[in-house]
Amino acid sequence: MEHLHLTLSIFLSFLMGVMAKSTQYLPRMIFTDKDTAVKRLSLSGHHAPVKIIPQRHRDAVIAVGQQEVILYDFQKTPVEQTVLWHCGNTSAAERSQDCRITVFQEMNETDLVFVCVAADAATRCCQMNVSSASPSCTSPSKVKKIVDSMKSSVTAKVEPSILVESGDSSSLYVTRSGQENSGIYRFGEKVIKPSNQNKEQHFVGLMFNRRKDDPLQNKVYAFYKARNCENHPQSYTWTPFVTQVCMADVGGSKSKLQRKWTSQMNAKLFCGNADTKQSFSELVDVAVVQAARWQDTRVYGLFRNEWGMSAVCVYTIQDIDDVFKNSKFKGSTKAFPLDRKRECVEDSTKLPYETLDMIERTSEMEQWVQPRNKSGPILINLHHNYTHIHVDTSQHMMNSNQAVLFITLNNGAIHKVIHREGEVLVGAEYQVFTNHVHILSISLQTSCRRLVVASNSELVHLDVENCGKYGDSCDECVLAKDPYCSWDNNHCVPHTHEDVQNGTAVDFDICPLTVKTGKDDIVQRVTLPYGSRYFLQCPVTSRHAVYRWNHLNKNTNCSVQDQSCFLHIDHVGPKDAGTYTCESEELGYVKVRAKYDLWLESRAGTHRSGWLPWVGVVVLLVKSLFC
Ligand SMILES: *[C@@H]1O[C@H](CO)[C@@H](O)[C@H](O)[C@H]1NC(C)=O
Ligand SMILES: *[C@@H]1O[C@H](CO)[C@@H](O)[C@H](O)[C@H]1NC(C)=O
Ligand SMILES: *[C@@H]1O[C@H](CO)[C@@H](O)[C@H](O)[C@H]1NC(C)=O
Ligand SMILES: *[C@@H]1O[C@H](CO)[C@@H](O)[C@H](O)[C@H]1NC(C)=O
Ligand SMILES: *[C@@H]1O[C@H](CO)[C@@H](O)[C@H](O)[C@H]1NC(C)=O
Ligand SMILES: *[C@@H]1O[C@H](CO)[C@@H](O)[C@H](O)[C@H]1NC(C)=O
Ligand SMILES: *[C@@H]1O[C@H](CO)[C@@H](O)[C@H](O)[C@H]1NC(C)=O
């Protein structure tokens, strides 16, 4: 009882803290198939893709399924599907049911990919040219060592991986999740495995941090959630972690940590608000935005809690690096054991036995990694469980000091989120799938700003550059704050890639003083019989705006239902005649959305003309209230 009570009160104070902010996290616009260009493809006969890779130079994607690799060419109508490769094409053993793709990695050179297939306790890897009509599986010297060292390593599914190519000694970093042997593996010339430990870990991301100034310090970072061992009723079952390894690491000496990481350090990630005790401890996904300065590289972590709420926190490599450089090791008495280095070393096999022993005993830091600027989550969704996060990593976006994120919901929708310094806006919700279809993967084709979304049964290709939908005035274009759009003196249009919308505040100053378009002033005349009922309708675009009706200088709020808001007039009488204006107001910008002139029918006249529109509108309203 005590526990329940405590949990409830924490939950309530959490809700209170979050409620005030939550309306800003409602999507500003809602887009369905009729609002944006969408192509849908049935996946019948094919496995659902677990990974989607946009092609750099054409409107096409490679979808990696469990047993096949398919190229979808969206330039063609109907969309052309080419099976590039199927498990069964390689060898007899792989024709078995057990055969599955475990690694699929784009290579440095255009068209080349590195792929691994596991079957019957063996793994076969090779290089493929996905541009050729029937790609063959080759293993040139560049990848030969990886191919050889991967042979006896079998993983169950596609996991995060990175291929680091450098002349003849390429290496593949790949994670393994689960209860046994989980951790980061390196294949290639120097094979390194994680130390044996029986912690359950699930990896969601892997990134490479290149140090041009000091290549010895090149590192790989991995993000994972670990299952909590302590079965404490109050602790949620997962803890989020970041871990790092040095790329120069070649393992310990013959007597200690041989071919095991000697440079690995782990730190817990915090996402929440320490003051209100809210925290999100299940790491779901990460997205990385590389920056020109390695320290500024940002990691967007998607988290959830036990109540099905989701949050996004941002970390910089600088913050992570600071913890690995300055924190005590967990359980260590000495703040800085002199013989334990925090930097990557030239030859890790030469580390003294005592150091290696210390490394083997603990690699966890005491200090947690806090979100950037010690801020709380940049985004919280109380009602929906977010499932994947993807970020636009095109060069011009990265240079513009802002980010466009795409976050999938477990009800089959996707949120487009704009993140700038100190500001987050859920710009749009794309209702891609209805009926709570589970989204398996998403990817953005940055060149044409199309999002490719996969479910179990469908591949959807949708336009996420919806500038024309924001409105026909400069102010409306600016209000959308969409880095993809700008005002060209006539329309809200997609930005050319160089001049991404920059401002941090809404800057109406860029908008010319224009004569109001005639559209605002179109007045619809409505004639109604005495005593009838009627609903006036006002179109809704931005859900962040307040809509109100004005009649005889009296304002009435208009509550939003679906794509409209209504004014309900009961028992029409003389007091109701006159002009009704529906206005929207957002950040001080006011616009007339609809105007009606209501007339009363003379008592002698027929009631018909008043009845017909009434019926239609009631049906609409009932639908929006109860569906
Ligand atoms: C891949 O195949 C295409 C078509 O056969 C060819 O033009 C291209 O040069 C090949 N690329 C590489 C890296 O071998
Ligand atoms: C792979 O095998 C299938 C049948 O198992 C065949 O239809 C397809 O053409 C083969 N593809 C290649 C690239 O050999
Ligand atoms: C691409 O290959 C070149 C030489 O083969 C290498 O110098 C470069 O680092 C590679 N790039 C990546 C991202 O691996
Ligand atoms: C959130 O969604 C995931 C994936 O659909 C599901 O496994 C999980 O149980 C959900 N969590 C809650 C609290 O609803
Ligand atoms: C966050 O920190 C960065 C660098 O530490 C600083 O430039 C930026 O202004 C800070 N942002 C906020 C919102 O405090
Ligand atoms: C964006 O801001 C930067 C720095 O303030 C400035 O140099 C650049 O010209 C701006 N770009 C545009 C398109 O306004
Ligand atoms: C109308 O909505 C505004 C903004 O949400 C609110 O401040 C105001 O109190 C509302 N007025 C009425 C009469 O409900």
TrEMBL record:
Cellular compartment(s): Membrane
Keywords: Disulfide bond, Glycoprotein, Membrane, Signal
Listed GO biological process terms: axon guidance; negative regulation of transcription by RNA polymerase II; neural crest cell migration; ossification involved in bone maturation; positive regulation of cell migration; semaphorin-plexin signaling pathway
Domain Sema: 1-464
Entry GO terms, CC: extracellular space; plasma membrane
GO molecular function: chemorepellent activity; semaphorin receptor binding
PROSITE patterns the UniProt entry points to: IG_LIKE, SEMA
Domain Ig-like: start-end pairs: 512-582
Signal peptide range in chain numbering: 1-20
InterPro entries: Ig-like_dom (IPR007110), Ig-like_dom_sf (IPR036179), Ig-like_fold (IPR013783), Ig_sub (IPR003599), Plexin_repeat (IPR002165), PSI (IPR016201), Semap_dom (IPR001627), Semap_dom_sf (IPR036352)
Keyword 4Fe-4S assigned: no
Family the UniProt entry places it in: Belongs to the semaphorin family.
Protein name: Semaphorin-7A-like
